[in-house]
Amino acid sequence: MMNAEFNIELYKLIADWNPMKFEDASMGDQEVYDCMDIIHQTDVRDETVKRIQHVYHFSFDQYIPAEEIHLLLDRVATLNMQCKL
User: Fold this and answer.
1) What's the N-to-C CA distance of the chain in angstroms?
2) Please, are residues 13 and 79 in contact by the beta-carbon 8 Å criterion?
3) How far apart are the C-alpha atoms of 14 and 27, rounded to whole Å?
4) Which residue in 36, 45, 46 sits closest to 9, CA to CA?
5) What sign does the CA torsion over 28, 63, 53, 80 have?
6) What is d(CA 71, CA 85) in angstroms, rounded to the nearest whole number?
7) Pick the CATH number of 4-84 from 1.10.340.20, 3.30.450.20, 3.40.50.300, 1.10.510.10
8) pTM (2 decimals)?
9) pLDDT digits (tens, 9 = 90+) for 26-71
10) CA gap 60, 31 in Å, rounded
11) How far is C-alpha 61 from the geometric centre of its chain's CA atoms?
């Protein structure tokens, strides 16, 4: 079960990731929320990567490299461990 602190920090982490390089990162808010939902619902890492790629491809017709998403998910795992302390 994820806690409120984790959700707040997860939002910040994904918004700061900003793979579309928007000057105003809030332009990708819906995608941030979609990614948060995927991270909460999907336990299989490769499936999580594919679903996040799909979000950005659907919204912006852009392909986010899997390696970039894996780096994000590494940071999410670290955040999760910190929030459990």
Assistant:
1) 14
2) yes
3) 13
4) 36
5) negative
6) 22
7) 1.10.340.20
8) 0.92
9) 899 999 999 999 999 999 999 999 999 999 999 999 999 999 999 9
10) 10
11) 17
